[in-house]
């Protein structure tokens, strides 16, 4: 049996969490590595949550929200997409493979799509193997560098 890795999922309450629930109710076979954190909206996700999760020992992070134009809060997923795209480009700068991070859109009725997304992402993280743990000083530098304004004006 393959060793479970630590994969964290930040899921929108209104769509992706419902999609994960639909997959569970439908008894779709899914990897068990993913631990879900339910958020009000993907637009609420600060990229630093992802960065701290990865530098804190998670092997992968998946963010999932409502499809564009279907956000319960109108524009939250647009803000999330902009911030998360910047974050994905930033990860190699601090030595984290961008394959350890993914964001996607899944609605509450898309249980099969959720199963596919989580299975593919888990396989991708397993192919990369466990993350190389970084020291506390490197973790602090990465977070201070990221908070220095990198994500501040992404909404504009």
From TrEMBL:
In alphabetical order, the GO MF annotations are: iron-sulfur cluster binding; metal ion binding; oxidoreductase activity
Q: Where is the F420-non-reducing hydrogenase iron-sulfur subunit D domain?
A: 7-129
**UniProt xrefs under Pfam families:** FlpD
> Which keywords are on file for this protein?
Iron, Iron-sulfur, Metal-binding, Oxidoreductase
**InterPro entries registered for this protein in UniProt:** MvhD/FlpD
Top-level lineage group: Bacteria
Protein name per its UniProtKB record: F420-non-reducing hydrogenase iron-sulfur subunit D domain-containing protein
* Organism, scientific name: Fundidesulfovibrio magnetotacticus
């Amino acid at each position: 049996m393959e060793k479970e890795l630590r994969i964290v999922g930040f899921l929108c309450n209104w769509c992706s969490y419902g999609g994960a629930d639909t997959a569970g109710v439908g008894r779709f076979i899914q990897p068990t590595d993913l631990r879900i954190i339910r958020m009000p909206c993907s637009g609420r996700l600060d990229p630093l949550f992802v960065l701290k999760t990865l530098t804190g020992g998670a092997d992968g992070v998946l963010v999932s929200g409502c499809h564009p134009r279907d956000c319960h809060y109108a524009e939250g997923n647009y803000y999330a997409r902009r911030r998360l795209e910047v974050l994905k480009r930033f990860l190699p700068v601090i030595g984290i493979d961008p394959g350890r991070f993914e964001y996607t859109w899944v609605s509450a009725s898309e249980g099969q799509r959720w199963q596919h997304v989580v299975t593919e992402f888990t396989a991708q993280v397993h192919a990369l193997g466990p993350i190389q743990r970084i020291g506390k000083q490197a973790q602090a530098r990465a977070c201070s560098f990221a908070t220095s304004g990198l994500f501040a004006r992404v909404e504009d």
